[in-house]
Every structure is written in structure tokens, then in C-alpha cells.
Amino acid sequence: MSMKQLDTLLKFEKDKEQQAGQKLKEAEYEYQQNISRLNGVAEYRLEYMKRLNQRTIEGIDSATYSQYLAFIDKLDHAADQVRIAKTQAKALVEQCKGLWMTQMRKVKAVEHLRDKQLQKIVKKELRAEQKMFDEISSLQFIRRDL
Q: Can you tell me the distance from the alpha carbon of 7 to that of 84, in angstroms, rounded to the nearest whole number?
């Protein structure tokens, strides 16, 4: 492969690495959002339970008590839904992390190939330069003998 092809491939792979990194960042953000949502629902449920407890101490009719319990059930259901979303978001984070790491390895491999190609080119140029100096030395030696 030529250096131009390797440079193009390296740019392409680095762009893909950047995209994979961005997707990972977005997935981690969504995961953190789900943790915050779950904490918010849990805090609201706790506050609502405290209100229910206070109301039962003060005295509460059965219809209001049933409404409190129904709302707490809805909060529990919401928490379950957020837990599911959180689990899915965590799985997505792990998947994105794996893809990003794979892409990083690809970039390193292309960089390694590019470095080896560059070393070959430099070595070839040094040999050509050395050959030219050898020829100049030979010509100078021949001219001295004449």
C-alpha cells in the first residue's frame, strides 16, 4: 500500500473511532440520565410514603388510602420501567465501549502499518543516497588515478 492510501485509510479509521467515541459518550449520558430518573422516582416515592404515613397517623378514610396506594403502585411501575431502561442503556454502553475499543485497535494497526511503510521508504531513500555517494566516491577515485 502506498503512503497516500495508508494516510487515507488512517483518516477514515480515525473518523470512525471518533464517531464510536461520540456514540459511547451519548450512551453513557443516557445511562446516567436513567440513574437520575430512577433516583428521582425513588425519592418521590419515599416522600409520598411519608405523606401517607403522616395522613394515617392523623386519620384517613379508606378511599383516600386506596388512592395513595394506587399512586404508589404507579410509582413502583414507573421505577420498574426506568430500571429496564437503565439496564438497556448499560448494555448499550458496554456494546459501544466494545465497538470503540475495536476501532481504537484498528487505528493502532493502521498507524503501525503506516509507520512500517514510512520506515521502508526512509530506508530505501537512505540506500539510494548511500549508492549515490558510493558512485561519487568511485568516480572521484577513478579520476584521481587518471
A: 44
Q: What region does 59 belong to: left with phi over 0, alpha with psi -120 to 50, or beta?
A: left
Q: What percent of the chain has pLDDT over 90?
A: 84
Which whole number is the average pLDDT over 58-64? 91
Report the C-alpha gap between 83 and 36 in whole angstroms: 11
Q: What is the CATH number of the domain that holds 17?
A: 1.10.287.1700
Cα-trace Rg, the chain? 34
Number of domains in the chain: 1
Residue of 30, 16, 127 lying closest to 86 (CA atoms)? 30
CA distance 145 to 54: 116
d(CA 38, CA 85): 10
Q: Which domain holds residue 122?
A: 3-145
